[in-house]
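Quick one: structure for this chain?
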Amino acid sequence: MISQRWPEWWDWELELSLHLFKRMTDRGFSELDLRGMLERARGYRSDIIEGRWVIITAFRGRTWEVVVEPDADAKRLVVITAYPYEEF
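Got it. Here's what it folds into:
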């Protein structure tokens, strides 16, 4: 289920994972693009990995998913990866 009511962690400072930096290169987007995707987010849902969330957004006319993991101790939102949504 996709929620549009944002939790407390939504406003935390971003931290970009090393995995994300490789995906940015592979998938042709920048940190600025990512921040824009998050600003235009339409909602979110829980991920298959407990404690992670999938942000639903758009980029270049397509739906994208951005996986994040809140770090409550550091009050940071760690961005794990981002990818274009592919319906199977």
